[in-house]
Structures are given as structure tokens and as C-alpha cells.
Amino acid sequence: MPDKKTKNSLIKELSAVMEALSSVTGQHMEVVLHDLEHPEASVLRIVNGHVSGRQVGSSLLEGPENDMGFTGLLGQEVPLEKTEPAVYTNYRTVGPQGRPLRSSTVLFRDESGKATLSLCFNADYSEVDVAREALSRLMPIQPVAAESGEAGLESRMHEIICACIPPSGQLKVGATKKEKVEIVRQMQEKGLFIVRGGVEMAARVLGVTRYTVYNYLDEIKKTQLP
User: For residues 52-80, b (16+ Cβ closer than 10 Å) or e, as one string?
Assistant: First the structure.
């Protein structure tokens, strides 16, 4: 059974942290504290709930799509000694009306390793993007660069790939799966796969199919889970 006293103390401490954060965060940043033992009404405290349309008493299922808060319920089997908080940072979620959000989550476990609480941060930068677009329209038209945006992007993608493969600049013949997975991990960290065509380009360099690259990414994701 969870230690209720410890849990209640942690709730009070996290609530105090949230109160402090609410005084300095903008309205685009939602901060929410979940009780994972009561997913049907998990929201204990929330700041800027308009970001996801939730309030105190909302269920875990009402959160943004791909919310890592669900990990607390789906991944209960952990080593008994693994009771430290699990941190998931800067991942993509989807809010109301399909608005893209950037999110981070901290999972707190009891002495048995069971996730009992989560503190989640969801940032909606859509208004910032609108403002940036409006400002760009007010700026004078820039001369056409010698290198188009598309060509520049492809050049940057090549730079990322070259930075991830061996110093020789070429992938050695007979490279092992482990070596290829490590290369894909480095490419992912440098952002290659957030742009269209990144997976295909990596596949060509590694001599594998795009589906194999996706499989490597799945393996990497599993190793990053707590």
C-alpha cells in the first residue's frame, strides 16, 4: 500500500511549487498535478487549465494526446529499488482543436515502485507562432539568397549525417546493427528526424530501409524509458 502520509506531504510540497510557478509563468504554460491512483479524477491542482481545457477533478483521459502522464499507469512493473522520480522532457503532445504543445512530465513513485503522482507542464506556443508570422510580414523583403531554404535545409541534414558517422565520413562495410542504432540515436538527438525526408536520408546512408530506421527509433525509445 502507498505511504499516504508521504504522498500527502509530497502533494503539499508540489502545490507550493505550483503556486510559486503560477506567479511567473505566462498564460501559455499549463502546470498540472495528477493523482495517478485516481485516474478518473486525477487533476489535484492546475495552473492555466485553459491550455488543455481541464480543471480540478478532470480525468487523466482528458489530457493532451500522447501525454506521458499515462506512463504512470501503463508501466507499473519496475524494479523495487527504482523509486526515484522519472523525468520525461520536451516531448510533443496535442491539445484541444489539434493545437501542438510541448510537454514535460515528472513521475513520482512510492516505496514499491508504483507511480502515484505526476507533475506535468504543457506549453502552447501557437500564439507566439502567429505573432512571429505577423512580424515577418512587416519586415522588408530580403534579397534572394544564393542558397534556397530547401537547399539550405538539405545541406544542414547532410551536415548532421556526416557528424554522426565515423570520422572517415563513410560508414564502414559490415557495420553491426548496434553501430547503426547508435548512429540513428545521434541523428535523432541532432534533430534529423523532425524534418521531412530525414528518415529516408538516414536509411540511404545506412543501407537499410526506412522501416528499419523506424524500428531502430522504437528500440532507442524503449531504452530511454525509466
Answer: bebeeebebeebbeebbbbbbeeeeebee
CATH of domain 4-129: 3.30.450
The Cα–Cα gap between 93 and 102 comes to 6
pLDDT in tens, 112-131: 888 899 999 999 988 766 67
Rounded distance between C-alpha atoms, residue 74 and residue 190, angstroms: 29
Cβ partners under 8 Å of residue 120, min gap 6: 30, 31, 32, 33, 34, 63, 67, 68, 69, 103, 104, 105, 106
| Start-end of H helices in 96-197 | 126-138, 149-164, 177-189
Q: At 1, is the pLDDT very low, low, confident or very high (cuts 50, 70, 90)?
A: very low
Domains of the chain, residue spans: 4-129, 147-224
DSSP secondary-structure letter at 141?
P
Q: Encode pLDDT of 136-154 as tens digits.
A: 777 665 554 545 556 667 8
CA atoms within 13 A on the CB side of 83: 8
* Alpha-carbon gap, residue 42 to 61, rounded angstroms: 9
**Would the pLDDT of 56 be above 90?**
yes
- Identify which of 123, 104, 118 has the alpha carbon closest to the alpha carbon of residue 34: 118
CA distance 92 to 143: 35
Confidence label for 176 from pLDDT (cuts 50, 70 and 90): confident
Name residue 39's beta-bridge partners. none
